[in-house]
Amino acid sequence: MSPSTSSNDDSFRPLTLRERLWLVPILLKLPIVVTIGIFRGNKGRSWSRSANLALTRYLFDHEWEIHTLRSFIGVTTSQMYQTWARSVKQEVLTDVLPEGAKLHWIGPRRDASHHKVFLYFHGGCFVLPTRPDYFPFLHSLQKALSADVEEVGVVALEYSLAPDAPVPTQLRQANAALTHLLQKGISPSNIVIGGDSAGANLTLQLASHLLHPLASIPAPPTLSQPFAGALLISPWLAYSLMSDLVKSGVTPELKHHVEPATAPAGWWSGLDGVYPRLLITAGEHEGLFDEIIDTSRVIGEHVKDTTTVVEPGGIHEDMIVKFAVGQGGNGQDYDATVAFLTSSFRGRN
């Protein structure tokens, strides 16, 4: 397997002695930071959510070496998926794809021609695996959809991680995942594509590749009709956060594909022939708010059925983060997501 398609399992090695010593003062301060965060950053949130937010902000305020951070996390996306599947007594259902990627099914595998599929790309700046809250979130969506949509499936792409697998490896793997589903005979009109943060970025990368094919990536599949829609949760639209870890692979040819916020308005001409419906969500207090709103306006000029939902008091990926503290499955953004996916699969405009 070439380095660009490595699964990066070696990045999850045990912590070295130097790394353990570096972590000691960080971990010693955690109880104080979390306690202060509960009282200073409440803003109407529960104590558990405020504590989780304070913890996340504190950890990401430090200059981590990416391999140290992955070792601190300790598990790959595959391992998280397998742990989750065992916890809910679900069979592990993984499709191994070309290009070194994997598809993990949440709920039953739905890969027959008449099935409907929500293809999901996780966030993490393209350098981190999924978090433990992702699979409960996707499982909740799968159960909600199954109540109103027959034979619908949810499947999550595990892509290789930068910088070991530089950009545009993740687009190459997303393209392979889409091709895999279409080769099963599933109609594009029965597929919704979406993701959070970097995964939402990847959702737009895929659309850009369909509209403006890259010579460095296998050709995108020919669509017989548009997809059912696309979901962008707190989309990461410009490489500012952790930029040094992903920018090394960004050539001028790739600029607008991987940084949608930099694309000229005309770039999205024809997007409604790929994604005829879009739901974009953002948290009221998230750091990416302005670029999300600005880009949603630009995209909305080309896809008239574009809805933007701002979660009051919400943070980045708010509807997902709630699952980390046992409070998932509610909120304006979550309710809008379930309604959007349901109506997209049922063909409502």
UniProtKB/TrEMBL annotation:
Domain Alpha/beta hydrolase fold-3 span(s) in chain numbering: 119-317
Membrane-spanning ranges: 20-39
SUPFAM superfamilies: alpha/beta-Hydrolases (SSF53474)
GO-annotated molecular function: hydrolase activity
Keywords: Hydrolase, Membrane, Transmembrane, Transmembrane helix
Protein's UniProt keywords contain Cell wall biogenesis/degradation: no
Alphabetical list of Pfam families matching this protein: Abhydrolase_3 (PF07859)
The organism's place on the tree of life at top rank: Eukaryota
Record Gene3D superfamilies: alpha/beta hydrolase (3.40.50.1820)
InterPro entries per UniProt: AB_hydrolase_3, AB_hydrolase_fold, GDXG_lipolytic_enzyme
Protein name in the entry: Alpha/beta-hydrolase
Organism whose genome encodes this protein: Lactarius akahatsu
